[in-house]
């Protein structure tokens, strides 16, 4: 395991990283001033670090100059920053699905990011991670995502790559898969990171050592409270905090699942983190406005 991957693993152990959204208008325009204030608010309210341009941040859809601006605003806060790479809806054909990811990782490294979260892709996942590592020498977090779960043998290989610091699991409802991923990561000396918004408390009990969740894109204190209670010895406090998180997750991480980004943006706007004009996800499914009331209510606000 490379020393840089070891350092990132140790730095992130026990932390909560918010999988931040990228506030944007209905037409997809990003105001970096809004982004900066939004990121700062997440950190002030309990996030120990930020994962930007990941699934929640719609990184695969954003232009290189916008991506660079988002990374710069996150790095300026002085907290650990992971950058989502890969996952392009239109990957480069001849160069392979990881060529763009490798360039994104190189840019992230040049802008001061601490690591990259690698979107799963078709084809040779291990070879893809190696290409990203050679391009940037930036520690990697492998990603076991519900839309493209990682085969066990491939997961083992990834977790033995010297540049892989940890594994994030986000399988939503596959408890056995989540348990297996956490066990594999720990066995290989990598950081087991929960991205399980719908199995958050259980995943900590199963051995996850850090969290990186889209649920912390708003109401970050709800997730932070579970982490704090877990580190303590008050079982009732952990149960109460987990119950509140589960109620919020039930309203936000539900079918259509890709709608969770819009739901978290609604909540961020209700909390005053972002203006209404930038509470849009043009890359997700259209949701009925009436659904917003349920999200707002679950977040502890009176419905508008």
Describe this structure in words.
The structure is a single chain. This protein is of the alpha/beta class. It contains twelve helices and eight strands. It has helices spanning 3-12, 32-44, 64-75, 99-110, 125-136, 152-158, 175-187, 200-205, 220-231, 235-252, 260-270, 291-298, and strands spanning 16-19, 49-52, 81-85, 115-118, 140-145, 164-170, 191-194, 210-213. Strands 1-2-3-4-5-6-7-8 form an eight-stranded parallel beta barrel, surrounded by six helices. Helix 6 (152-158) links the parallel strand 5 (140-145) and strand 6.
In summary, what is this structure?
The chain has 304 residues and is of the alpha/beta class. It has a single domain, classed as Aldolase class I (TIM Barrel), CATH 3.20.20.70. It has helices spanning 3-12, 32-44, 64-75, 99-110, 125-136, 152-158, 175-187, 200-205, 220-231, 235-252, 260-270, 291-298, and strands at residues 16-19, 49-52, 81-85, 115-118, 140-145, 164-170, 191-194, 210-213.
